Amino acid sequence: QASQPFEQTTMHTAQPIQQAAPVNHAQMPPAEKLATCLADQQAAQIMVTVCTDALQTPNLPPQNLARVRANRGISYVELKQYQNGLNDLNVALDLDPKDEVAVLNRGFAYYNLGQYEAAGAEYNKAIELNPNDASAIGARGDLESRNWQLGAAINDYQKATQLRPNDFLGWKSLCLTRAMAGTDLTQAVSE
Known about the structure:
This protein is mainly α. The protein contains nine helices and no strands. Helix 7 (150-163) packs antiparallel against helix 8. The chain is elongated.
């Protein structure tokens, strides 16, 4: 029996990825949280517009076309326009099938469109491209948890939290899945 579906969101953004300083969102005032959320949505909408304009460039080299389509697709996924995102990500991955960020975000799009088997295949592909991608491993854990494959989900969440120990949502997912599995939460709390 599968649990109720929940929305899975992007954990990676358009390339190049720069490591941001950790932010303690729990300590953020509500007005700052709202401003950050709105800014992120605005940034994604701006990226869609800029990428759409860039696609008008004559004789765009294939590697640039792949990157522009991937960036626009990822932005569409961030805006919850999953089918538009999937369309762009499919084109991008036809041109550059090793773009792990595009693969992962195509998984997010499939997941949010209810195409869970396709999402799982994309997460596995992203992990194959980068075995230490905590976002892909955690996303696969989300899917496994949704499908009541709790042992596999716990294993993935453990690996994801080892790779990214300051990820609150990863730890939360690990604890909740352990609770769903009826395991002792003492270890999860101590971690």
